């Protein structure tokens, strides 16, 4: 929790710095008004007024958080553009007649944020192929996480994404947490879960909870509790695994872990991976479903075969998409990794939460084909 408090205040400080930076640079773009005789404070005040007006307009169009994200992203690109043009001037000994750095920054920002919006609000399919020398038939796994229903899509659009997943004819569907959000209505939760229960698979649907499924603002805020969600999932035939394992058709195990936040944010307890796997037959293939990509070394020691995670949203925004790994919050931010004899896959999520841009990744669901053969070093297609 301390780490997230630090991140929060660092983000606030960064937002203030970027607001001041953009405000200070904007007057350089206004060439149709002679500002050369204006004092620095007057020039900055004009820039601040324009920046605040732009932020307010964005807030009306989207929301305040994403307006601030846009301003921060523009400031970052603007600073890089200023540095690039300054370097060019020094290297080739010229002085630009106009403030091209600022216009270039705005153009690049519009392109980057437009791509980020599109990447966030559309869903792709990402494929992986894994090999195992354990005795089991070929297995096609569909997996998604972070649907946060009601954010980038509602229950009707969620049904369309499920139809797309169904066309892949998966043998099993796994859901790695954050199925709902604080903004999900009770009606959206019920309708989405009914649709989810209609997915046809050979071995069923399995779910583990994420940090948002419990709800940060209480049941009264969104109209249902986590227990209500669990009841609805069970009613529609979805298997909930909370620190439990199940042997599927005597072929392979699914181990579902309670979310990391239960222990580290909510003061609860979750079993260790050692406790969860100590009595399992290690000659059979073991899939671990855990919302957050943490404790990888322990999962390797536990000799599980495949670990599936979400939570990170693929790092969300470039170039910050590796920060979670750098600060030790996550063992993997996105994609595939192999440690020892264990494969790890982290999805960027099929949707999003508060931030509605993905400039460092895209929204996706995952199809994993597990086949007989020698284990491979690279799994992504």
Question: Which class of the largest domain in CATH terms?
Answer: Alpha Beta
Question: What is the SS-derived class?
Answer: alpha/beta
Task: Output mean pLDDT.
Answer: 91
Q: At the third CATH level, what is the topology name of the largest domain? A: Purple Acid Phosphatase, chain A, domain 2
Identify the CATH homologous superfamily of the largest domain: Metallo-dependent phosphatases
Low-confidence stretches: none
Please tell me how large the radius of gyration is.
Answer: 24 Å
The CATH architecture of the largest domain can be given as 4-Layer Sandwich
Gross morphology: elongated
Distance between the termini: 37 Å
**Helix-strand pattern, N to C?**
HHHHEEHEHEHHEEEHHEHEHEEE
Content of β-strand: 15-25%
Q: What's the total count of β strands?
A: 12
Strand order in the sheet with the most strands: 1-12-2-3-4-5
**How many structural domains are formed by the residues?**
2
Fraction of helical residues = 40-55%
Question: Would you give an account of this structure?
Answer:
With 381 residues, the protein is an alpha/beta fold. It folds into 2 domains: 2-119, no CATH class; 124-372, 4-Layer Sandwich (Purple Acid Phosphatase, chain A, domain 2), CATH 3.60.21. It is built from 12 helices and 12 strands.
């Amino acid at each position: 929790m301390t780490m997230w408090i630090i991140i929060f205040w660092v983000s606030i400080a960064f937002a203030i710095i970027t607001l001041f930076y953009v405000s200070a640079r904007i007057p350089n773009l206004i060439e149709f008004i002679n500002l050369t005789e204006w004092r620095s404070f007057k020039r900055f005040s004009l820039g601040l007024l324009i920046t605040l007006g732009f932020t307010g307009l964005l807030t009306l169009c989207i929301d305040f958080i994403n307006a601030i994200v846009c301003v921060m992203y523009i400031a970052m690109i603007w600073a890089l553009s200023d540095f690039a043009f300054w370097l060019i001037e020094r290297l080739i000994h010229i002085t630009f007649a106009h403030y091209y750095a600022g216009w270039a920054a705005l153009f690049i920002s519009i392109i980057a944020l437009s791509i980020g919006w599109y990447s966030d609000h559309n869903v792709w399919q990402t494929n992986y192929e894994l090999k195992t020398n354990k005795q089991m038939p070929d297995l096609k796994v569909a997996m998604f996480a972070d649907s946060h229903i009601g954010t980038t899509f509602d229950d009707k659009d969620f049904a369309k994404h499920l139809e797309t997943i169904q066309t892949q004819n998966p043998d099993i569907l796994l859901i790695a947490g954050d199925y709902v959000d604080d903004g999900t209505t009770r009606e959206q939760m019920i309708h989405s879960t009914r649709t989810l229960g209609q997915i046809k698979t050979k071995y069923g649907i399995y779910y583990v909870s994420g940090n948002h499924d419990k709800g940060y603002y209480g049941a009264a805020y969104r109209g249902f509790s986590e227990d209500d969600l669990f009841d609805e999932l069970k009613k529609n035939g979805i298997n909930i695994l909370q620190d439990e394992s199940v042997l599927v058709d005597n072929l392979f195990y699914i181990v579902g872990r309670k979310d990391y936040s239960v222990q580290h944010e909510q003061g609860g307890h979750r079993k260790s991976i050692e406790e969860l796997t100590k009595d399992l037959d290690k000659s059979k293939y073991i899939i671990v479903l855990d919302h957050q990509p943490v404790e990888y070394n322990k999962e390797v020691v536990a000799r599980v075969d495949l670990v599936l995670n979400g939570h990170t949203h693929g790092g969300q925004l470039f170039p910050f998409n590796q920060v979670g790994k750098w600060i030790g919050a996550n063992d993997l931010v996105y994609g595939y990794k192999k440690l020892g004899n264990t494969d790890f896959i982290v999805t960027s999520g099929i949707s999003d939460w508060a931030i509605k841009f993905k400039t460092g990744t895209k929204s996706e669901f995952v199809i994993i084909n597990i086949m007989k053969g020698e284990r491979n070093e690279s799994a992504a297609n």
